[in-house]
Give the backbone structure.
Amino acid sequence: MIKEAMLYEKLSEGQVRCNLCAHRCAIKPGKRGVCGVRENKEGVLYSLVYGTLIAENIDPIEKKPFFHVYPASRSYSIATVGCNFSCDFCQNHDISQMPRATRMISGEDFSPAEIVARAKKSGSATIAYTYTEPTIYFELVYDTAKISVENGLINVFVTNGFMTTEAIETIAPYLSAANVDLKSFRDEFYKKKCGAGLNPVLESLKKMKEKGIWVEITTLLIPTLNDSEEELKDIAGFIAGLGVETPWHISRFHPQF
Ligand code: SF4
């Protein structure tokens, strides 16, 4: 399904600027943003993945991973295709990179109310927006999160954190927790390996803390690329500065993508 996008502005000559993530793509008519799931149709920006779920699973909350959010509960976990990163080592590259590689948008359509009803029926305590990148299916997240809060569920993100302050401010009233990947502490790594940048991620982490969102952090250790003692100390130091209560999950690399 398609829906007019949130958080964008109209520019001259039919162009639009998407302000959801830190790429802040300027998109010409007929073109899509870096994520491949937001398209300028005659001067109006649309999400192409509104309600179109490529994944729906009931996972243990610890698998997200969250170790301090309703331990031992289930988490109703969803995703659409697409991502604003292009990590060389992505473990879900078949769905995250699909729109960029093929322009295809795949999945089954559900309304936000249907998603919340299915989450309730599954006995889950939370809805997790995960597997790809929740920022790029923001309109679906926003509408679903509002309804789920009214139904006694809580919302959690598993995210790369490369979002704008505006996006965080908008979702914060409905978002209880986020597990944010801190993939490296080097901007060069983010540029070369992910097609992104480090600073917006650090800013998002600070902003989430400021908004009272519970934050856990994950780092996938890739031998020789981000596992030097110096870099790990840098990450640990930053996390300690965020707040010593912040859990840091270290995960094991296996080759993908
Ligand atoms: S969400 Fe997509 S279109 Fe919007 S700024 Fe990010 S990459 Fe560009």
Q: What stands out?
A: The helical segments are 93-96, 98-102, 112-121, 138-150, 165-171, 187-194, 199-210, 229-242.
